[in-house]
């Protein structure tokens, strides 16, 4: 009995209580909740550059070095773009493309990483909290001016001429490559007639044999089966003065269809040979190589922007951004039974973004 009494004294006697008066059930509205206290801002931890003048100078030099790297990247772009000029072989093209890409990369990364490193090591990093309040238009203008002045002061750009000068140089040079590239696009528009004339003529001509790329082996009609695809170049391409440019214009896809499935327009009745057709491999959108052939649907697909051409309807565009059909190369066979061209393309090959007057 004494043990039972002591337990009731310690825990409370609820043997005859109900949920309403036993005290074991919490009820809403019977008490008040304490509000969460504002913990305030965490204590500010000084960085090494805030306490050590040598570390501050080192960080300043690092930021300036990153901006100088940006300047070097831009200059590398200029060298690749202007000094190397027009590369004549694949090795020079690879070097030029690498310099253009790396130059642009370092030009942008140097500025971006430099600004981030500047902010993390040298700019003030104190956290502040401000109450929101109504601002009149005039006060808003004054506050904006104060904020701008405060930002300039906190960056320390006035008292850090090394960072200021290298940043100005990097920012001044960085947009120039884009300006020259856009200028060249404009030049392409002004010389559209000349560009079209260049693309109107390729190495294809009457009786020029169709050969496999890259072996240069001539092709007979019996070699081309329904569903197969040949990447074709004109015979004698290796002897051309400018092999890469000539190949870029003249490369062709050769395929065979069931003649009953072909929809041939007037004037092209003899452009194929027993269902064997040849079309320019250069997409008429932006010049990517059309290289995917769907045997069941007879569709040619450009992998860059998904322009799709219907082979049964003379490679007319059925999907995608391309503006016109792939140019067709008229073909036949010579006296030795090899596939040959009847003539050059009857229209310019390649993209259609300029006027083709």
UniProtKB/TrEMBL annotation:
<feature type="domain" description="Rieske">
    <location>
        <begin position="276"/>
        <end position="340"/>
    </location>
</feature>
<keyword id="KW-0408">Iron</keyword>
<keyword id="KW-0411">Iron-sulfur</keyword>
<dbReference type="Pfam" id="PF19297">
    <property type="entry name" value="QcrA_N"/>
</dbReference>
<keyword id="KW-0472">Membrane</keyword>
<keyword id="KW-0560">Oxidoreductase</keyword>
<feature type="transmembrane region" description="Helical">
    <location>
        <begin position="63"/>
        <end position="84"/>
    </location>
</feature>
<comment type="similarity">
    <text>Belongs to the Rieske iron-sulfur protein family.</text>
</comment>
<feature type="region of interest" description="Disordered">
    <location>
        <begin position="1"/>
        <end position="55"/>
    </location>
</feature>
<comment type="function">
    <text>Iron-sulfur subunit of the cytochrome bc1 complex, an essential component of the respiratory electron transport chain required for ATP synthesis. The bc1 complex catalyzes the oxidation of menaquinol and the reduction of cytochrome c in the respiratory chain. The bc1 complex operates through a Q-cycle mechanism that couples electron transfer to generation of the proton gradient that drives ATP synthesis.</text>
</comment>
<feature type="transmembrane region" description="Helical">
    <location>
        <begin position="162"/>
        <end position="182"/>
    </location>
</feature>
<keyword id="KW-0001">2Fe-2S</keyword>
<dbReference type="InterPro" id="IPR017941">
    <property type="entry name" value="Rieske_2Fe-2S"/>
</dbReference>
<keyword id="KW-0249">Electron transport</keyword>
<feature type="compositionally biased region" description="Basic and acidic residues">
    <location>
        <begin position="1"/>
        <end position="19"/>
    </location>
</feature>
<keyword id="KW-0812">Transmembrane</keyword>
<keyword id="KW-0813">Transport</keyword>
<dbReference type="InterPro" id="IPR036922">
    <property type="entry name" value="Rieske_2Fe-2S_sf"/>
</dbReference>
<feature type="transmembrane region" description="Helical">
    <location>
        <begin position="96"/>
        <end position="119"/>
    </location>
</feature>
<keyword id="KW-1015">Disulfide bond</keyword>
<protein>
    <recommendedName>
        <fullName>Cytochrome bc1 complex Rieske iron-sulfur subunit</fullName>
    </recommendedName>
</protein>
<dbReference type="Pfam" id="PF00355">
    <property type="entry name" value="Rieske"/>
</dbReference>
<keyword id="KW-1003">Cell membrane</keyword>
<keyword id="KW-1133">Transmembrane helix</keyword>
<dbReference type="InterPro" id="IPR014349">
    <property type="entry name" value="Rieske_Fe-S_prot"/>
</dbReference>
<keyword id="KW-0679">Respiratory chain</keyword>
<dbReference type="InterPro" id="IPR045603">
    <property type="entry name" value="QcrA_N"/>
</dbReference>
<keyword id="KW-0479">Metal-binding</keyword>
């Amino acid at each position: 009995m004494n043990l039972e009494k002591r337990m009731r004294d310690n825990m409370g006697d609820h043997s005859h209580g109900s949920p309403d008066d036993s005290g074991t059930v919490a009820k809403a509205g019977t008490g008040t909740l304490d509000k969460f206290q504002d913990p305030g801002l965490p204590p500010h931890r000084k960085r090494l550059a805030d306490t050590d003048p040598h570390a501050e100078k080192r960080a300043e030099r690092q930021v300036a070095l990153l901006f100088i790297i940006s300047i070097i990247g831009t200059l590398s772009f200029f060298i690749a773009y202007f000094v190397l000029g027009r590369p004549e072989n694949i090795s020079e093209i690879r070097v030029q493309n690498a310099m253009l890409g790396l130059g642009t990369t370092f030009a942008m990364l140097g500025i971006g990483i430099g600004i981030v490193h500047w902010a993390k090591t040298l700019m003030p990093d104190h956290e502040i909290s401000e109450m929101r309040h109504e601002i009149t238009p005039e006060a808003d203008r004054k506050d904006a001016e104060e904020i701008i002045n405060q930002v300039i002061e906190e960056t320390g750009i006035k008292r850090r001429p090394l960072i200021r000068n290298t940043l100005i140089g990097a920012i001044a040079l960085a947009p120039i490559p884009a300006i020259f590239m856009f200028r060249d696009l404009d030049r392409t528009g002004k010389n559209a007639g000349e560009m079209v004339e260049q693309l109107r003529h390729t190495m294809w001509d009457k009786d020029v044999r169709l050969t496999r790329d890259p072996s240069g082996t001539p092709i007979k009609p019996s070699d081309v089966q329904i569903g197969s695809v040949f990447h074709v170049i004109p015979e004698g391409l290796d002897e051309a003065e400018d092999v890469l440019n000539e190949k870029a214009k003249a490369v062709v896809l050769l395929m065979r269809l069931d003649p009953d499935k072909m929809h041939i327009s007037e004037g092209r009745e003899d452009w194929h040979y027993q269902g064997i057709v040849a079309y320019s491999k250069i997409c008429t959108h932006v010049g990517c190589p059309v290289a995917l052939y769907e045997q069941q649907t007879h569709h040619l697909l450009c992998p860059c922007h998904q322009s799709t051409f219907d082979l049964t309807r003379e490679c007319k565009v059925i999907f995608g951004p391309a503006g016109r059909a792939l140019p067709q190369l008229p073909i036949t066979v010579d006296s030795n039974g090899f596939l040959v061209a009847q003539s050059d393309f009857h229209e310019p090959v390649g993209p259609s973004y300029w006027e083709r007057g």
